[in-house]
């Protein structure tokens, strides 16, 4: 017959019918008591404690320095010239400043918790939770004890340096928003003209290989740039020009096209070309659905009907995508008839 003793660390005996013997089974509760407390060096040596405190607030002030450096780097390494060297330096030095700011806060907080905060073990008995006045009083007492054990209210250098580091850590992010502010009185003028001009061949993005009308099959969608753009270097403004000139080329049955009278010669044998720059906030519109002839902007789900002048059929975009007038040259290559006849990109930039 099986026998067992109390559950506080003693063995239990259980009956095993197949052997007819009683065997000892270890108690799963055994060994859960807390190990003896080991004092840290900072608890035993005041000089070590003071050194740990100095290390912590030094890390927090180092975080402040990293945040300030990120702001300085934003100003002394501008990217307005558009060169890749400037962009690399801007990203590198701002990133180093932000990384130093956040890393120093993290290391300082961890060192604080391990070396300075209270290292006593506590056992919290479970009890029924009820909404009563004594519960609120108990919560206040817990915060008071936590403040005393952490030294948050007593160690002013750590507390103040932490506040300074946290406050400074958001400054680089706020500064970077400066790059989103309008740089010109009328940004729409910058988008009114692109690299497209009469005779510019439509070429594959990014290879720059010209496209023949015979290459464009029904239902296909080609990502297109001006042939001349492929020859530009980054230092010559490749990215800026490409951002304005990107086009999506689509072919569909001629009878499915609904064209305004003044735009009937803007397409060629069912082939149409529209700007890829969404008229909401400028995201690239590149998701084409062949059966419905709809273009989807992945950023905010604006949808445009390619078969009907790229009119907006859903979402926050305020106007159709600008259409690029096209034709073919003597060699059968698709070419632009002119530049876009309206500014590309977000509609709100047109409000002056």
TrEMBL record:
The chain crosses the membrane at residues 59-77, 92-112, 162-181. Its main location: membrane. One of its GO terms (cellular component) is plasma membrane. Residues 26-45 are annotated as: Disordered. Keywords: 2Fe-2S, Cell membrane, Disulfide bond, Electron transport, Iron, Iron-sulfur, Membrane, Metal-binding, Oxidoreductase, Respiratory chain, Transmembrane, Transmembrane helix, Transport. Coiled coil: none annotated. The keyword Aminoacyl-tRNA synthetase does not apply. Pfam families: QcrA_N, Rieske. Belongs to the Rieske iron-sulfur protein family. Iron-sulfur subunit of the cytochrome bc1 complex, an essential component of the respiratory electron transport chain required for ATP synthesis. The bc1 complex catalyzes the oxidation of menaquinol and the reduction of cytochrome c in the respiratory chain. The bc1 complex operates through a Q-cycle mechanism that couples electron transfer to generation of the proton gradient that drives ATP synthesis. This is Cytochrome bc1 complex Rieske iron-sulfur subunit. It comes from Microbacterium halimionae. The lineage of its organism: Bacteria, Bacillati, Actinomycetota, Actinomycetes, Micrococcales.
């Amino acid at each position: 017959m099986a026998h067992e003793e109390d559950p506080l660390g003693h063995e239990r005996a259980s009956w095993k019918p197949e052997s007819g013997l009683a065997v000892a089974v270890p108690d799963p509760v055994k060994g859960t008591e807390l190990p003896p407390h080991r004092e840290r060096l900072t608890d035993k040596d005041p000089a070590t404690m003071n050194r740990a405190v100095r290390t912590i607030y030094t890390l927090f002030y180092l975080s402040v320095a990293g945040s300030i450096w990120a702001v300085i780097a934003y100003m002394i390494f501008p990217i307005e010239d558009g060169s890749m060297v400037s962009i690399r330096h801007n990203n590198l030095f701002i990133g180093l400043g932000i990384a130093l700011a956040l890393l120093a806060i993290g290391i300082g907080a961890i060192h604080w918790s391990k070396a300075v905060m209270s290292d006593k073990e506590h056992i919290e008995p479970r009890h029924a939770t009820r909404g009563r006045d004594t519960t609120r009083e108990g919560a206040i007492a817990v915060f008071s004890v936590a403040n005393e054990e952490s030294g948050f209210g007593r160690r002013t250098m750590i507390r103040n340096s932490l506040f300074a580091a946290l406050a400074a850590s958001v400054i680089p992010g706020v500064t970077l928003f400066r790059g989103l502010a309008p740089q010109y009185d009328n940004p729409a003028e910058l988008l009114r003209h692109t690299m497209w001009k009469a005779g510019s061949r439509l070429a594959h993005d990014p290879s720059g290989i010209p496209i023949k009308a015979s290459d464009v099959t029904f239902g296909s969608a080609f990502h297109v740039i001006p042939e001349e753009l492929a020859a530009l270097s980054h230092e010559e403004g490749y990215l800026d020009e490409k951002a304005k000139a990107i086009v999506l080329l689509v072919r569909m049955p001629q009878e499915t096209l609904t064209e305004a009278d003044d735009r009937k010669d803007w397409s060629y044998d069912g082939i149409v070309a529209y700007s890829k720059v969404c008229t909401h906030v400028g995201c690239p519109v590149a998701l084409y659905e062949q059966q419905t002839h709809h273009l989807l902007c992945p950023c905010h789900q604006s949808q445009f009907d390619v078969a009907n002048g790229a009119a907006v059929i859903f979402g926050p975009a305020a106007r159709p995508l600008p259409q690029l007038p096209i034709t073919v040259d003597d060699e059968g290559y698709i070419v632009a008839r002119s530049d876009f006849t309206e500014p590309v990109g977000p509609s709100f930039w047109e409000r002056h």
